[in-house]
Design a protein that fits this description.
With about 150 residues, this protein is mostly helical. Helix 4 packs antiparallel against helix 7.
């Protein structure tokens, strides 16, 4: 069976991770330059492991709830439609109208959360808002959009 491109990429990352680990282990840490090199290589290894985890799981590492969340079936249906994969011209127009009906804050928080996949905490840090405020904006936006589609 032929490997997919992602399986090939995962294999390459895993192989290079082992190469970097062997290189880091071969460094003489008693030398200041080698110790600094080992620290740099350790950072590279951490980044590669993070990327590997993301590729294997299909979602951002550390995210407790990813795109596969199904807390309420109706909401899931709306969010799947957001991708545009199942939307016709009329539905797409309704979605644009629904998004334009949101306040600027609601639209910004909703799109950052649903389209960009940022956590509520990341959004609150970016916009300098409390996490509770971001949650309120996202919830209101969900309700308004759900009214348009369901």
């Amino acid at each position: 069976m032929k490997a997919t491109w992602i399986e090939t990429l995962i294999g390459q990352y895993a192989a290079e991770t082992h190469v970097l680990e062997r290189y880091r282990d071969s460094l003489d840490l008693s030398l200041p330059a080698a110790a600094e090199e080992a620290e740099t290589v350790s950072g590279m290894l951490a980044d590669m492991r993070y990327a590997l985890t993301w590729m294997r799981r299909g979602r951002r590492p550390g995210s407790r709830r990813g795109a596969e969340r199904t807390d309420v079936y109706r909401q899931r249906e709306v969010y799947v439609k957001l991708s545009g994969a199942q939307m016709g011209g009329a539905e797409r127009l309704r979605m644009v109208e629904a998004l334009l009906a949101l306040s600027d804050r609601e639209r910004t928080c909703f799109l950052l959360h649903m389209a960009q996949g940022l956590t509520l905490q990341e959004i609150s840090d970016k916009l300098d808002l409390s996490k509770a405020s971001v949650q309120k904006y996202v919830t209101r936006a969900r309700e308004k959009i759900s009214e348009q589609f369901i």
